Give the backbone structure.
Amino acid sequence: MCGKELTVTDSREEGLLDDGNMASRMANILSSAEHNNVMLTGEAGTGKSASVRLLGRRVAEGKVKELLGKRIFEVNLDLLFSSCYTVSDKGEKLRLLFQEAEEYGIILFIDEAHRIYGAGESNSVGNIVKPYITSGSVRLILATTNIEYETFIAQDAALARRFERIRLKEPDAKRTAEIIRSVFAARYPAMTIKDGTIKELVSLADRYVREKRYNPDKSLSVLDYAAAWQQNNGAGREITSVSVKRALAEKLGISPERFEQDLTMNIRQTAGKLKAKFPAWHDGIDSLACKLSEALTRDLRRKGPLCKAALAGSDMALLREISDEAVKAMGFSRDEIIRAVPTDSPDELVEPFLVNPNRAIIVEVKNGGQYAGTPITALLTLILREGRIKGRFGDALYGKAPVLVLFEGEEENGGAIGFGKCEQGKTAKLSPEQEVLLDSWFDEAAPVYFGGIDRKAAEALYTGYFIPLLEKRRRRLHAPRITVTDDVREYVIQQLHSARGWSRASEITEEMIRMAIVGGGIEYTAGMAKGAITLHDNEAPQLPPVERKENEPVR
């Protein structure tokens, strides 16, 4: 026995739904006079095997007239090839299997179909399949992922053209909720769950479950765990929102309070974290928090990313740190961020997404670039406007994470960026190319601006950021102590008052630490000389004054 029959009326399969009429489409292909073999492709967990099981149940119930009397068997290739040591052994096993299928009118279903691809050997699985398919004596249903189909099967054109391909896409949140409702009724007839709880379960699974990449598989895993948790803890027959959150928290190993906090409180906490780190840009952070709140109230919207926001300013380093902290506050680690610029290859954006679609996207649009018509610009337009990613393997929904676009504007009144004195500028002007992208991606909505700051904010930034940063870097590098005089303090505040104040703080601390390390002393005092910062060694010996006799010439 190398598999199991699917043409059975199993009560456990009553919760299956025909998503997008996949079972009906497969039945029509299998009933055709020619081209009657199915290639079912889709990402892992999107319901390929479930669609075939549903077809088997319909055939068993006599609902597909053209397939009456037919039987569908799922072939386990591992069991079939368990005693095979060479390609010839595998070929002989397959010939016997196909002969039996032809004799009894059996339709074979093979999952992980990329394993039938051969490297050109006469006895490769793929070459053995071709004659049976061409003659129409055996009908097959093959299933595999999009990547594996393109990598293996599509490379063999003679094999690929013998199949009718059906692409199975990930269902949206609303359709996933319908699947959860149907499966729940079949699997747990003694328990109850409300529609609102199902919607919340799908939303939480989509946002927090990362090890399973696609729905409905990830939501079903949460449902099964929540039902088991409910029964094992004696929490009653109804699965409630509270029990779903507690079960998911236990499953993920996090605190239940992370789910149970009020949405408004989550927004305030996110804004509070940003304001603590960036004390001079409270207004911009409040505006950004409103954009992030779209993710917390999004639920079942179909189009667009989880949330999107445009950030603008002349200091790209500041925009990067704010965007990093924003996505981190929403639960995404640095490894779960895709960074892109409009001149990248689309593959640099698509390939990380295919590995893990639960990623935040941060796009940097620098001033002076030519971005019109680039392939990745069109791809980003799909993501931001429709929530779709278009790659080599078809379209995929992108609605699981935020998208932040950073526009680096030109400092309108800016001066030099060097270590010396620079003029103050408080606004950043976007180029025409950037304006076009902003209008296209955000429907002419104004970006969240992080520009230059006033004198009072610069003083607060000096105390709350510059001095702690200087001490932190000094300790990390074991550098000498540095005492800052009032004239240096005034100079630094002027620099922080510029449109690139955040970057200037980092640049000045790095230069001061470098001078202290090169000097080789123990403790220094920072002063000003000719408009630049200099360091004086406090431990250096003082030369005694030279006494000179009256009327003695100066040498």
Observations:
- DSSP finds 21 helices and 20 strands in the chain.
- The longest helix spans residues 455-477.
- Confidence is low (pLDDT under 50) at residues 119-123, 414-426.
